[in-house]
């Protein structure tokens, strides 16, 4: 094709730059459709107008799963600085903060990132990490538990960890909870049932997903008057040191009068008991 007849993709038939004439709120919608924050930031080089436009996007999505070796300190520090820089440059409250990183990063760094997101009144937290500097139990930051804006929490702990939560009422606005690779009850230390804690502490919780989680006791009780959606997939078990044999079946008891959707995929041997689920349709 003759170059003189070629038209820039952003221009109309009359040669007018369509993108340049779009208002800022439309450009922000376009940027919001780009899943990667790194790619969104790259648009800042397009022109002076685009330089700070990315800071008005109310979401952060950073995926760093290259699996750095522990001795690559320079690259690690560069990534830390990048995440801090993104969080500090956001001018609006955050609708969502998604962070996926390898297990190279210490928990103190991750806690600071979470705190920065909470300060921005984040509504959705989607975190995937496996800190190498923490003991078997992983302490959840106090600021996350008390965050009044957090409505959705997705937490994946690569390598199965127990969560330690403060003994205070928490997650006042949480509606959706997804736990992945988490030990659900700390029977070894007698600290209680993690699922029960969330169900009793979160007054607005309606959607619960337990994915690839462990139940040391081999049984799981889910009782909630408000829960509407429940998803349990590939439930694993770990042995109880106080019994001789590993439990080879999962006992699942569900008592949720407002439950509408149940998806349970687990062990070959599963005992399922349903109570007060008259609204269940699927």
Automatic annotation (TrEMBL):
- Residue ranges occupied by any F-box/LRR-repeat protein 15/At3g58940/PEG3-like LRR domain in the UniProt entry: 111-234
- Among the Pfam families in the record, one is F-box
Signal peptide range equals: none
Gene3D superfamilies, per this entry? Ribonuclease Inhibitor
**Which residue numbers delimit the F-box domain?**
20-58
Name the InterPro entries on file.
Answer: F-box-like_dom_sf, F-box_AtFBL13-like, F-box_dom, F-box_SCFL_complex_component, LRR_dom_sf, LRR_FXL15/At3g58940/PEG3-like
Q: Spell out the protein name for this chain.
A: F-box domain-containing protein
What is this organism's lineage? Eukaryota, Viridiplantae, Streptophyta, Embryophyta, Tracheophyta
């Amino acid at each position: 094709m003759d170059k003189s007849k070629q038209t820039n993709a952003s221009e109309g038939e009359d040669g007018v730059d369509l993108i340049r004439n779009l208002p800022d709120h439309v450009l922000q919608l376009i940027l919001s459709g780009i899943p990667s924050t790194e790619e969104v930031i790259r648009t800042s080089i397009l022109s002076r107008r685009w330089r700070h436009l990315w800071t008005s996007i109310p979401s952060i999505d950073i995926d760093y799963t290259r699996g750095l070796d522990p001795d690559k300190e320079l690259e690690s520090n560069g990534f830390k600085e990048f995440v801090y820089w993104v969080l500090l440059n956001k001018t609006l409250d955050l609708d969502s903060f998604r962070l996926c990183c390898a297990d190279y990063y210490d928990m103190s760094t991750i806690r600071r990132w979470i705190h920065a997101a909470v300060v921005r009144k984040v509504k959705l937290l989607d975190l995937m990490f496996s800190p190498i500097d923490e003991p078997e139990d992983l302490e959840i930051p106090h600021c996350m538990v008390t965050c009044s804006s957090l409505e959705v929490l997705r937490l994946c702990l690569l390598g199965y960890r127990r969560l330690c939560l403060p003994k205070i009422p928490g997650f006042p606005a949480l509606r959706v909870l997804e736990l992945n690779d988490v030990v659900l009850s700390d029977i070894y230390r007698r600290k209680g049932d993690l699922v029960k804690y969330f169900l009793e502490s979160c007054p607005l919780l309606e959607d619960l997903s337990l994915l690839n989680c462990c139940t040391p006791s081999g049984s799981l009780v889910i009782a909630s008057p408000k829960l509407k959606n429940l998803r349990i997939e590939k439930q694993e078990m770990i042995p109880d040191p106080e019994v001789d044999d590993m439990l080879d079946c999962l006992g699942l008891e569900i008592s949720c009068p407002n439950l509408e959707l149940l998806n349970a995929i687990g062990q070959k041997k599963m005992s399922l008991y349903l109570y007060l689920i008259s609204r269940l349709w699927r």
